[in-house]
Amino acid sequence: MEMKRGSPNALKDLEQRIAGLSGVETKAGWFKSAVYPDGRPVATVAAGNELGIPSRSIPPRPFMRPTATDKKPEWQDKSVVLVKRVVAGQMTAFNAMDTLGQIAADDIAVTIAGITSPPLSPITLGARKYKQQGKKVTGATIGEIAGKLKAGTLDVSGVSTKPLIDSKKMIDTLTHETSAS
Hints:
- This protein is 54% helix and 7% strand.
- The protein is mainly alpha-helical.
- The two termini are 20 Å apart.
């Protein structure tokens, strides 16, 4: 969609490109297709990690909000560049927003990968050890794990102490969606 000087449709083409910017939306995160093998939506688990679940002794480990705050100036700068490309006819509004969505998802993934605190609880480490040994972790086994940890009979060496990467499902299914109205 190249705009040529002197073209009688040049202004109309420019107006269409600008109007196209308002009808496109992009979102980064987890969508309906992202589920754990047990059927739990990854978005629910991500929200629990982002905000914490005090009733289950899960502390907040925010990654969405800090990324949005930290990256907002970069995203705004990139938006300006992309809008100029749309107005110049070098890319579509959909492609510009899709690019921004991919950038946001990538930035969130970097934040998730960098989270190291608060540290995992000993029970979480014990649960990881059980999974590593091929054992299923249930409510009953959590009690068993707690007892073994208290007795000093469960060695949790060799398990990752890194939060948010137990199965890697959350980071692997982080994506973006772009839609046009």
